[in-house]
Design goal:
alpha/beta; binds beta-D-glucopyranose spirohydantoin
Amino acid sequence: MNYKKDEVTNLLNTKCMNVFGCSIDDATEKQAYKTLCYVVKDLLAEKRSKFAKQYKEKEGKQVYYMSMEFLVGTSLRNNLYNLGMESVFKSALKQKKIDINSLYAMEPDAGLGNGGLGRLASCYMDAMTSLGMMGTGFSIRYEFGIFKQKIVDGWQMEFPDNWLEMGDVWLNRREDESFIIKFGGTLKEEWTDGKLKVTHENYQPVMAVPYDMYISGYDTDAVNKLVLWSAKSPNNLDMTAFSRGEYVRSLEENTMAEVISKILYPADDHIEGKRLRIKQQYLLVSASLQSILLKHIKKYKTLDNLPDKVAIHINDTHPALCVPELTRILIDEYGYDWDKAWDIVTRTLTYTNHTVMSEALERWPESLFSAELPRIYQIVLEINRRLVQKLNEVYPGDIAKIEYMSPVAHGEVRMANLCLAACHKVNGVSKLHSDILINSIFKDYYNIEPDKFTNVTNGIAYRRWLCQSNPELASLIKNLIGDKFVHDATALEGLLKYKGDKNVLESLQKIKLVKKQALAKYISHANGINVDPSSIFDVQIKRLHEYKRQLLNVLQILHMYNVIKDNPNADITPRTFVFAAKASAGYMMAKQIIRLISAVADLVDSDAAVRDKIKVVFIEDYKVSLAEIIIPAAEISEQISIAGKEASGTGNMKLMINGAVTLGTLDGANVEICEQVGKDNIFLFGMTAPEVEELWRKGYNPNFFVTPELKRVLDMLTSGILGTRFEDISKSLLTNSFGTADAYMTIADFESYRQAQERVGKEYLNRDKFTDMSLVNIAKAGIFSADRAVKEYADNIWNIKL
Ligand code: GLS
């Protein structure tokens, strides 16, 4: 958008006067922040209205992306960047003596997600918009997003994240477009004219109120919307109770309804089988589908062409209720018969699986499911009955297989099977993950309908992670290869010609140092620790989960500690180990691991012989905006999950494009990162996924892998040297909670990891060689852009022409 400085000043002044009754010169910092956001929102609204009009005329196909999570992070800088207006706003504000960076700093993260899965959804909204696609995201307007984490004496404490206080500036409430969602109640069945009519009675109505957030894209005419549903009681106040003087009771119904959208469940890669959670899921699905269908029927006067005009995407199983709910609406509210309704459902819905972790495959007890959603339960049973009939023809008499594939079995409703039965396309999120899906957990479905399955390797909104978070690097790249890469990330390959170029390597080193200094400043402020920017910055930033093996990293650090203690002159390249991770509130082992990291940090820091060589830092409250500070400063990217468990990873891609070199197993998208950069530009270690399988088959005995060095480290966990005795952790490395061997095989991979770490230390000493590796990583990161991924979704899954 083309605005001059004076025009921008006018916009700011007018808005500030209208909202706060003062000019921007007299505004408080908070008022200035809000004014700026409102002005940006107005600009987006104007663009949106043009885009929607153009689109309406074209009658193209559009996508609705259903996700319980969108980890939006901050929007202000991103929107200004995307609109190409950052510098004009900066100078207009500067003239008013307002520093735009201090306004940026006021914005809370919209933390409506847990980790990779939620962030991916936001990256895809960005890419859809940048590609000019009409795409709408649907989720929940959690009043409290992912909790704020504080570490007190090594323990994680959770505090509510009241993001709306400053974050609601981006939202537009549209009360008049609300829908009623029905929970509980009973069903009445009547036969009229040979047709069964089901009426849902005595239900608890909850109103879903939509709030729109505009999503901008880079250099595009498009502006999309993320629609967030908020739960509310349709009856604000129970007047009868109120007149009786029962004031609290009179508000009870409202409170009960509102609780549905109160808080995001902080579980990542595992399920929280709570009643409230299924209500959240149904609220999202039912409200979104009602709104999609209403809009469609207004425009086309029929739903027969729904699959031609609309793709509805189920992001992981959390919105899997789309399957029975779409069927229900078509039958109960639009009068379709089963076969026609099912045909529309199956041609409209698509599904992405994001994990093979068995504890994350959602299942609901039938009793809970049927009590909360009686009509939906009835429909699920019918889907199940018809499917089982079909499967009986394909796998006659193979009861075990049919049971395994059924949406309803053993007293549970299984959401993944529901998606597999209904969706016409199903994808995994990296080559390895998609292979695992078709060769193991979804094999039986794959055998019947192989064409249904495909892969889309994840991608990132790289303009946020490179151009906005690391403008210094982006500008160097522009000087070297021009700015084509800002539209087309694969153009980064042009950097390869600078391999070995002394000047370029030196510039890269300088930029990295600047970003490391910035992180060091943050750490000094947040943790009160001084870290040395000339040490290797080795980072592991992601959710705390046993399969991600933060423990492997910790064991290795303890080993390094021993090496230095034994020989204070040992040849160790100074290293700063940076951790940041949130643990699910109820995940005790994960919390213990955080405590262990803090204890190791203290041990290292208290020892004069060691602290100049290694530092361990746990930065609290990991979130998108913190990642934007850590990632540009990273040199080593720890991606060390046990092979076969990390579906893809996306932090690995963000780190890579900022020049960090991966130290990892051949898991998830690391496999493809390795394919891109070649084995010389990545530090690989550990078992491959087939080797892991093989070891399980042979029988895994951790004790067999305990070397003398490792024994010494393991003993430290319980000896008291760390202040606390970490008995549980020590046991978990040898056995799991059922008394069988540790499912994450940390010990089996230790020796190979230790050696890889040794190589890292050595190779880093040759700064130019290491920077060359870094350069190759940046150059080869283009394929991991969300633009590429969304194009693949459009082509192979949604059937949308771009
Ligand atoms: C996740 C996976 O664990 C990640 O490997 C993946 O990158 C991400 C996005 O596809 O999805 N699944 C999940 O439940 N949480 C994730 O972050």
